[in-house]
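Final report, Chapter 2: Outcomes

The project's central promise was a pipeline that accepts a single protein chain and returns its three-dimensional structure in a standardized token representation, suitable for archiving and comparison. That pipeline is now operational. To close this chapter, we reproduce one record exactly as it appears in the project archive, with the input sequence first and the structure output second.
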Amino acid sequence: MAHGRFPREYISNPHIHKPIEEIYSDINSFTWELFEGDPEVDKKVDLTVVLPPLIYEGHFVKGLVFSRGVDLLKEFIPDLQSFFQCMAYTMFCSYPWSRRADAYLACYRNPSREGWYRNQCTAREKTAFIPLADTDYLDEYRFAPVRGVAKDIDVLCVSRLQDVKNVQLIARALAIYRRKYPGTIRLTLITGYRKGISLETLPPYAIEQYLAIEKILGDVDTYIDLIGYVNHFTELPKFYSRSKVFVLGSLIEGKNRSIGEAMSCNVPVVCFSEFNQFARQGYPIMSAEAGICCTFDPEDLADAIHLVLQNSEIFSPRLSYLRGSGRRNFINQCLDSIPYYREALPEFVPGQHVQNHWIDAALQHTYGMDLLSFIYRPGPGLARAWGKPDTRRLVDHYKRLMTDGG
């Protein structure tokens, strides 16, 4: 649920002239975390298990989870802390507001911002900051190029019709592209609306954006194929695989999920160099081989799209993604970043936890699988929980296994 004040002045203005400390405060004034008292929080609170609790030859190591509702889950399930290290995330580029998390999924590495935050919140001095988000826990095998699919989509964008997504600027870029370059390109825009795309079914904020796009382009259908809801796992990888380039129009939001999904499906990305610029402060959005970062300008966006379309062979987005992202890299970075594991985990070698023999032996002993099997195909009821009852059931299940000694 939304909490605080969304920094709306950052949505379409890349030039914010404020002291950096004030900018950090603006960013941290908003979160999508879940807290006790939020509507339907008992049903909505989530828990993702990255590593289950382990016991082998008498040695116990806590598991690792992340959630938008760490504080309320720790209050509801006191045993949670006994069996897991807990990471909080916000679905925004703010730092979590959680008071009881062991670690924050902080989206990006930013020593200046971390220092500012620790000075503001001295009680968080021992909280680990991890330059990842929940969106980085992406299954790079589910989101992979689909073989035998034709590249029949010129430009893909996965975005609701919201002002924060700057779809109007993307529309201006499409109009400029047609005037400036020979040939015709089309944008496929996946909006996620389950009731379809019409002025009768869209919410008011989306209608406002649609009418603005129509004013820019005239007949929207000659430029854009508007798509409603697409199944995230069965259909979305096919759309990525059909696409020649992926575009993101946002300047500020969370660590966008679609960028990673596109790269993992080997689709070059075009986005703005000012995307989450103050949260990142130099931390790269992606490598040069994954795509292009252009300035927040419709003609620059049109030029970047053209460059990618004309030179697709120079980009290697999936290879770039696999080098530093995906679930194996996620678990390696998390275990490296949390001091508990450096002390408690046998055979601790930084960046090499997927190859840790003790972890594999402990997992095989208790769960009948190795680490990669757990990360990618854990089986029902072991890796995700939604709502308080389901989360309690999951934690109780792990508690019984650990109490029985595996």
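Archive annotation: The chain has two domains: 3-137+326-403, 153-322.
This record, like all others produced under the grant, will remain available to the consortium after the project formally closes.
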